[in-house]
Amino acid sequence: MIQFMARKIVFSILFLFFSLSFSFGGYGNPATADNPIKLLAYGDSLTHGYGLEAGDTFPDRLQQALNEAGYAVDVINGGNSGDTTASGLARLDWALFDKPEVVIVELGANDGLRGLEPSETRENLRKILRGFKDFGAKVLLTGMQAPRNLGEEYVLEFDKIYPEIAKEFDVELYPFFLNGVALDPELNQADGIHPNRTGVDKIVKGILPYLEPLLKGRT
């Protein structure tokens, strides 16, 4: 009960702080090099860049692609290797200190790999989306697919989470974060799970058309 109240107090303080920031800060002004859009890539090892050199991670490659496309954006690496949706939810309050205006949510891969209950994954993602939206951030949700060896019932229940909550919260959905990359040895590291730089570039190319509409408001 004490932990719940403490979390509620922190959340209330953050809400007030960011409400003032949105009202008096640069959020309504055009994006420039001195006042870039803050874009948070929030996820697990796929976002953080497990096994990759500096400059080759998803946030790094996305930053370069957006710069080349003429966007004034500061891409923040909010990935944490090993995160499930539950651990992503647990650090949500601290992610808000970055004051993101646009958020890419990439979570759930580890839930599927561990065979966690899909209903828990769904509820965690719902709370994460609600938290970012309550603070005024635009959200791009990236879908994930369950490992196919977990059985048809599990796969069907897990895979439908992302399109259903994207519709519920009226957020943009990139159907599958690893689209065109999963299971391709040419695009993944030796573990067969994490993309190499070429794979990351393919992800960035696929996700850009879904992301760009969210950046238009301040460009």
Task: Write a structural description.
This protein has 219 residues and is an alpha/beta fold. The protein has a single domain (37-218), classed as SGNH hydrolase (Rossmann fold), CATH 3.40.50.1110. Helices cover 48% and strands 12% of the residues. The chain has a five-stranded parallel β-sheet with strand order 2-1-3-4-5, with helices on both faces. Helix 3 (58-68) crosses helix 10 and helix 7 packs parallel to helix 9 (161-169). Residues 15-26 have low confidence and may be disordered.
User: What is the global morphology?
Assistant: globular
Structural class: alpha/beta
Helix content: 40-55%
Q: Radius of gyration over alpha carbons?
A: 17 Å
Q: Largest beta sheet, briefly?
A: 5 strands, parallel
Work out the oligomeric state of the chains in this entry.
Answer: single chain
What is the terminal-to-terminal distance? 44 Å
Strand order of the largest sheet: 2-1-3-4-5
The number of domains: 1
CATH superfamily placement: SGNH hydrolase
CATH class categorisation: Alpha Beta
Short description:
By secondary structure, the chain is α/β, with parallel strands linked by helices. It has one domain (37-218): Rossmann fold (3-Layer(aba) Sandwich), CATH 3.40.50. It has ten helices and five strands, in the order H-E-H-H-E-H-H-E-H-H-E-H-H-E-H.
Topology:
Elements: H1 2-24, E1 37-43, H2 45-48, H3 58-68, E2 73-79, H4 85-90, H5 92-95, E3 102-106, H6 109-113, H7 118-134, E4 138-142, H8 152-159, H9 161-169, E5 172-174, H10 197-215
Parallel strand pairs: 1-2, 1-3, 3-4, 4-5
